[in-house]
Amino acid sequence: MTETRFWLIRHALVEENARAVLYGVLDVPLCETTLLSQAPMYRALAARLPQPATWYVTPLSRTRRTAEAIFRAGYPTQELGVEPDLIEQALGEWQGLPHADLPARLTQPAHAFWPLSGNEVPPSGESMAQVITRVGAAMEQLASAHPAQDVVIVSHGGAIRAAVAHALGIGPDNALHLSVQNLGLTRLERQPEGWRVVCVNELPGY
Questions:
Q1: How are beta strands 80-82 and 150-155 bridged, if at all?
Q2: Domains plus CATH for the chain?
Q3: Under DSSP, is residue 42 helix (H, G, I), strand (E, B) or coil?
Q4: Entry pTM
Q5: pLDDT value at residue 1
Q6: In whole angstroms, what is the distance from residue 184 CA to residue 202 CA?
Q7: Which candidate, 39, 11, 38, places its Cα nearest to that of 27?
Q8: 141-167 mean pLDDT
Q9: H helical segments located in 49-145
Q10: Is the pLDDT assigned to residue 26 strictly greater than 90?
């Protein structure tokens, strides 16, 4: 095999108070109750993911804690590389805002499935279009660094949508139509001929 095989997992559900606001790249905690109740999903991921593999997380603790939960569920503990360019969309001055306060600040109509349109740039933040550029470059670099290997990445909903958008060559508003659930698994392959999308949002245990 010559392709690099990527296994992207969205981090576990964050705690309730964080879900009430736009948290973006804030380092919010995970929901401890859900960590316990979703134990079968972690076991399913531990059994599903390839061995051996190189693992990456982002600088935010919710991705590292999710990876550690998969290890506790039966996957052999791995060294976790940190890839900053696979972090969530930065919402700048809008981070921490209650969801209800956002519409009055938008300069473009909201997306049907996301609070912001794909080209909306929050003050001191980044648009989804910029996230696709950032994440796409990181995925290309990782593919070059790990030829013909399996790479597991615990990341964020926005970054995983961006990775799929890069693979498919679609724009930011189209990318926001993708559903990426917590603990959902998305598989991409970087082949010599280009990118291939194997699956999006496979839910463990279902």
A1: unpaired
A2: 4-202 (3.40.50.1240)
A3: helix
A4: 0.97
A5: 73
A6: 5
A7: 11
A8: 98
A9: 61-72, 128-145
A10: yes
The answer for residues whose C-beta is within 8 angstroms of residue 159's C-beta and 6 or more apart is 58, 86, 87, 88, 89, 131, 135
* Residue 204 structure tokens: 């463990």
pLDDT at position 48 over 70: yes
Interatomic CA distance for residues 107 and 117, integer angstroms: 9
Record the tokens describing residue 199, joined without a space: 């699956």
> For residues 12 and 34, is the Cβ–Cβ distance under 8 A?
yes
On whether the CB atoms of residues 25 and 90 are closer than 8 A, the answer is: yes
Q: Which residues 6+ apart lie within 8 Å of 101 measured at CB?
A: none
Q: What distance in Å separates the CA atoms of residue 197 and residue 189, rounded to the nearest whole number?
A: 6
Peptide bond preceding 52: is omega within 30 degrees of 0, i.e. cis?
yes
Please give the C-alpha separations between residue 91 and each of 80, 147, 187, 190, in angstroms, as whole numbers: 26, 33, 26, 29
Task: Give the length of the chain.
Answer: 206
DSSP E strand boundaries for 111-184? 150-155
